Amino acid sequence: MAFKKEKKSELVRRMEEFTEKASAPWRSHGISYPAIESTSFVVKQLQHQVTNILKMTVEREIVIANMVYVAKALPNFKILLSIPGIADNTAVRLIGELGDS
Hints:
- By secondary structure, the protein is mainly alpha-helical.
- It is built from 5 helices and no strands.
């Protein structure tokens, strides 16, 4: 499924923005006092887990964007969007949970 070029660039921009915000704590290392060595296994394990979380978050955003693209053809999607407080993300999640029939 192909997204329009502007949709892709918006998704990429959002992912880059999220990654930038999520990596901010790592940049604070120069102003904090370390309790353990940076070469510690615990530090390496934590870095690995944070990296996995960031990757999964980006993958989730891509999956939701694909779901929105597919759901736009469904009449239930338009009905759900007419409810105040429900946007694309919530509408596709509801359709995913409840079905489209």
